[in-house]
TrEMBL record:
UniProt keywords, alphabetically: Signal
Species: Pacificibacter marinus
Name of this protein: Phosphate-import protein PhnD
Record family assignment: Belongs to the phosphate/phosphite/phosphonate binding protein family.
High-level lineage: Bacteria, Pseudomonadati, Pseudomonadota, Alphaproteobacteria, Rhodobacterales
GO biological process: organic phosphonate transport; transmembrane transport
Signal peptide (UniProt feature, chain positions): 1-20
Length: 302
């Protein structure tokens, strides 16, 4: 209740926050990473867009670029102000310009934990039950800038199994599908033999777990989880950060942070839509949570 009262006071007092601190912004822009079709991504973020627009008193727009790099470059170039990103995409921004953005909040799972997993999966009728069964077969990955869709499996799979990620060295082909939804559809249709995507790993497999790309695919009617089998799981990955551009006026940053921080209490349905499944809300986070992801990206680039 205290957080709700505080938010009400903040949004009333700062209804013209876009013109605070002697700085002016004439619009606010939210970038949405890939993972599902553009219209679904826009629909999932419309509730947040509307709240921020009402609070700031300036037009607030949604941008859903075709790939992850579109959001990364938008944050670096100042054409996107806010995004819920994968840790690897945030690391890419930080490596390019450590002063461009800051992580401000992280999704909190229904059990109070944070973090998620990269999981490998295949069709039950494919006969693939493990990574060992994938030798010589086509393995689908979402996007080179995806944490769960490429970075983490590309580091952990060679380390734990010795299987190289180079085409033909162990897997017959390592193929980028373009996003998480595309990977799920490609596996389900038999276009690739297995793929990786992200999930909280909580709840039931049949439901696509509690949140993540599998849950979204189930809710959208794209897959029946009984047709799929999990073949690999990563270590726990630091949760996806909400990042905010540092050049924004302080009062704008405070207002936007307050809206998302209290979203689990003020509008649980919006929190669920934004998070991609059931969450209890959002908690503060800092760059320190992502130093290992930054190090992994730097290692991959060397």
């Amino acid at each position: 209740m205290k957080k709700i009262i505080a938010l009400a006071l903040m949004t009333t007092t700062l209804s013209h926050a876009a013109f605070a601190d002697g700085q002016a912004i004439d619009e606010f822009r939210i970038g949405i990473l890939g993972g599902e079709n553009a219209q679904d991504r826009m629909n999932s973020n419309e509730c947040l867009r509307s709240m921020i627009e009402d609070a700031l008193g300036v037009p607030t727009k949604l941008f859903a670029p075709a790939d992850y790099n579109g959001v990364i470059q938008g944050l670096l170039g100042g054409t996107i102000d806010l995004s819920l990103m994968g840790p690897s995409s945030y690391a890419a921004v930080h490596i390019a310009d450590e002063n461009a953005v800051s992580p401000i909040l992280i999704k909190v799972n229904t059990d109070g934990s944070t973090g998620y997993y990269s999981v490998g999966f295949a069709r039950v009728d494919s006969g693939v039950k493990s990574l060992e069964d994938m030798q010589g077969k086509v393995f689908g990955f979402g996007d080179p800038n995806s944490t769960s869709g490429y970075l983490i499996p590309s580091v952990e799979i060679p380390t734990t199994t010795g299987a190289s990620m180079e085409n033909g060295a162990y897997f017959g082909e390592v193929k980028f599908t373009g996003g998480h939804e595309q990977t799920i559809v490609a596996v389900n249709n038999g276009d690739v033999d297995a793929g990786v995507t992200w999930t909280d790993g909580q709840g039931e497999w049949e439901d696509g777990y509690t949140f993540g790309a599998l849950r979204k695919a189930v809710d959208a009617g794209l897959v029946d989880m009984n047709d799929l089998v999990e073949i690999w799981r990563s270590k726990l990955i630091p949760g996806e950060p909400v990042v905010l551009r540092n050049a924004l006026p302080d009062d704008v940053r405070a207002t936007v942070t307050g809206i998302i921080d209290t979203l689990g209490e003020t509008d649980p349905d919006c929190a669920t839509a934004l998070a991609g499944g059931e969450v209890s809300g959002f908690d503060p986070i800092t760059h320190d949570a992502y130093t290992s992801i930054v190090a992994a990206r730097l290692a991959k680039s060397n």
